[in-house]
Design brief:
With about 270 residues, the protein is an alpha/beta fold. It has ten helices and ten strands. Helix content is about 35%, strand content about 25%. Magnesium ion binds next to helix 1.
Length: about 270
């Protein structure tokens, strides 16, 4: 799905956010990116969803060298990648249906997009996506009346109507209640399994990453600190990754002894 060769991103000629990175991601793979704040996770995501180009190196998406793409061809490739952000970028005053369908904008003409604000086009598609995330009854509610967790589900539904091959989620649960965070991570894993999407998630929480993802990449100072199956990640790896920093505000890096028990539980989503 992705092949990165010696990819670097430098801001303002001196901040090396991503440093000479090599990475391969297979189609359908699920991987979590973890690492301290400032490690370059968001920058890597923005390159993976083709928002920003690498400063150097090559980035292949489905064997296409995306640095050579512009205009319409670049937009076509971007449409194959759905992104879920930490700040979910929903328009609070609009009905849920409009926010969900904004995921289709890339595929719509301007005229159709404007018309959709008056009478939602493809409302059935939005209903289906909302059903997939467990809140179909919210279709015509004003988005701002939903809870934080429900709004994050709307953001996921918006990515789903785009029917992307890849779902990129940049700290999708940082702004929701910890109790809801696991549910949202599980939902994204389950959806990516059911619909055979590649899922790459950037997670603040080490325990969520280890509990739900088969492959874990630790990023530090723009470089890969480790790239391992979750079962092979040790306390030592985590200590090196987070040396001199903290995973959550005021929270020490949790030890694997505390984390391992959660790894086996994968309850199905019932909402
Ligand atoms: N648009 C930008 N302009 C300048 N510096 C940036 C920009 N985006 C990120 N950086 C810098 O790049 C580094 C990596 O940032 P980021 O990718 O946001 O890390 P993370 O998501 O892991 O916290 C940081 O030093 C950050 O300040
Ligand atoms: Mg970030």
């Amino acid at each position: 799905m992705y092949q990165l060769n010696q990819v670097s991103k430098v801001f303002g000629g001196r901040t090396i956010a991503v440093d000479d990175l090599d990475l391969k991601v297979r189609r359908g793979e699920k991987l979590a990116l973890i690492g301290p704040s400032g490690a370059g996770k968001t920058t890597l995501f923005r390159m993976l969803n083709l928002t920003i180009p690498p400063t150097s190196g090559t980035l292949l998406f489905d064997a296409l060298n995306v640095s050579s793409l512009h205009g319409r061809r670049l937009r076509e490739v971007r449409r194959r990648i759905g992104t879920v952000y930490q700040q979910h970028n929903l328009v609070p005053r609009l009905q849920v249906v409009h926010n969900v369908l904004s995921g289709r904008l890339g595929a719509w003409s301007i005229w159709r997009s404007v018309r959709s604000l008056i009478r939602p086009q493809e409302a059935d598609l939005a209903y289906e996506a909302l059903s997939q995330v467990g809140i179909p009854e919210k279709l015509y509610d004003r988005t701002e009346t939903l809870s934080g967790g429900q709004q994050q589900r709307v953001a996921i539904a918006r990515a789903l109507v785009q029917n992307p091959e890849v779902i990129l989620a940049d700290e999708p649960v940082s702004s929701v209640d910890p109790a809801l965070a696991a549910g949202i991570v599980k939902l994204l894993i389950e959806l990516s399994e059911t619909y055979r999407k590649t899922l790459i998630m950037n997670l603040h929480s080490v325990d969520l990453a280890l509990a739900h993802f088969p492959r874990i990449i630790g990023l530090r100072d723009g470089k890969i600190s480790f790239d391992l199956p979750a079962a092979e990640v040790t306390d030592e790896h985590l200590a090196v990754l987070y040396a001199g920093s903290q995973t959550e505000i005021g929270e020490e890096v949790p030890s694997l002894a505390e984390l391992r028990p959660v790894r086996s539980c994968q309850p199905r989503l019932t909402t």
